[in-house]
Structure formats: structure tokens, C-alpha cells
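Hey team,

Filing this mostly as a record. A colleague (T.K.) asked me to run one chain through the structure pipeline before their review meeting, and I want the input and output archived in the tracker in case anyone asks later how it was produced. No errors, nothing strange. Just documentation.

Input sequence:
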Amino acid sequence: MKVLGISGSPRKGGNSEFITAHALRAISEEGIETEMVSLAGLNIGHCIGCYACQKEHRCIIDDDLPPILEKMKAADGIILATPVYFSGASSLVKALMDRTGMVARYSDSLFKGKVGGPLVVGRRAGHNFAFAQMNYWFQILDFFMTGSSYWNVAFGKDKGEVAQDKEGLDTIWNFGKNVARLVKAVRVQV
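Output structure:
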């Protein structure tokens, strides 16, 4: 069993990485292997709507996405984290969602039955919109999703500031524990 956490911030070592690592620690405590990938510094272009994925069952754009998609395919669970950018997910997360989502839909529901969910961090507002945007991606791709004691959001602007949001971190920790329980339950059924 393995859960992949993807931090979608363009800033290395920022709050999105912090909350992703926090959730993954909660999951690893339950005996599940975890891995974190940061999109910071990677070249992930946007979907160009070419629909080559219908025939190829992969994205034909030559950039840094294919190795991440392979990790997503191999994982039992996937967590996507984003900072809030104008009340939505970062462009890196959006590009990843668009392109992996298209490949998944044209590859026999590639993510069907995987466990997943979003994490969102931002300075002041826009969390709910980014959270909803990412929830729609998980839902349309037939993931099993879990909730937490609140929405999986945290507050912080500057690097490390999210560590001061106790309620947000408690919520994310609980989310991680729920992801672990669900991954174990799903694996028993497979």
C-alpha cells in the first residue's frame, strides 16, 4: 500500500509542502508507505486539447509530467495540495489535473477505486473555491474520498506560517488518518 502526496506550489519548501508532509506523516504512522512529490521547479505544461490521449493512453506532451503520472498510477492513494491562487488551484496543479484527468478518462478509468483528496493552504480567502475545484477532479475520476473534522484547508502566507494554524493542521492530520483507514479498507476488498 502506498499514498502519493503531490505539493502543487511553485515555491519549494512552502506551506503546501508542509501540509502535504503533515498528512503523509499521519498516513505513514498507520504502516502505509508514503512519497511526496513537489511540482516546484518542474515544467508541466497545460493541456492543449489534442485528444492524443484517446489513442495513446498517455499524454504526448514532452515535459516533467510523465514520471509523476507513473507514480500516480502505482499509488493506492493520491493527495493533491495547492496554495490558493485567485480563489483557485495553482496553475501547476490545474495543469496536472487537466492532463492526468484526460489520460485517466481515456485509459479505462485509470484512477477508479483509488483513495484521494485535496489539501488547500492560503493567506486569507479562496480556500473553499480551490477545495471545490479539486474535489470535482477527484469525483469525476471515480476516486474514493474521505472527509475530516473540517474542510482540508489551512491558513498561512509566508513559508512555515501554516505551522501556526493548529486547527488546520489537526484537520489535515485527521484527513491523513482517514485516508489510511480507507486505503486499508479498499485494499481488503480488492
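Quick notes for T.K.: The first strand starts at residue 2 and ends at 7. The chain is about 45% helix and 15% strand.
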